[in-house]
Design goal:
By secondary structure, the chain is an alpha+beta fold. It has helices at residues 14-24, 29-37, 42-62, and strands at residues 2-10, 69-78, 82-87, 93-98, 101-109. Strand 3 (82-87) and strand 4 (93-98) form a beta hairpin. Helix 2 runs antiparallel to helix 3 (42-62). The model has no long low-confidence stretch (mean pLDDT 95).
Length: 113
């Protein structure tokens, strides 16, 4: 049994969010949350919220034991790009791309060996 949570249209570039997601892949949920709490990246706060939401979904909706939950899959997909314009010299313009992310976390219960 698995539980999932998603955060969509997050205003964090996917490249930076993937660096944070790589830190907690295949980790125990409580260990992942403690790692994210002390990670000095803006994306860490958002990823921590999604991990916590997936753990809560597992507990409340699927009756899984939180002490045995681990992050089975975590991935960051690219969302739509907000395009903004910065005026430049001689009437030209410079395109500013503000990227967004879709963050997905899937947690499973690990069987004790």
């Amino acid at each position: 049994m698995e539980a999932r949570a998603q955060a969509r249209f997050v205003r964090v570039p996917p490249r930076k969010a993937r660096a944070v997601a790589d830190l907690v892949r295949n980790k125990h949920v409580d260990e992942a949350l403690s790692i994210l709490r002390y990670t000095p990246r803006r994306a860490a706060k958002v990823v921590a919220k999604v991990v916590g939401s997936a753990a809560a979904n597992a507990e409340n909706n699927h009756d899984l034991n939180r002490s045995r939950l681990f992050i089975d899959r975590i991935y960051v997909d690219e969302g739509p790009v907000l395009r903004r314009v910065r005026p430049r010299a001689r009437g030209r313009r410079y395109l500013i791309r503000k990227r967004t992310s879709h963050i997905t976390v899937i947690v499973k219960e690990r069987k004790e060996v």
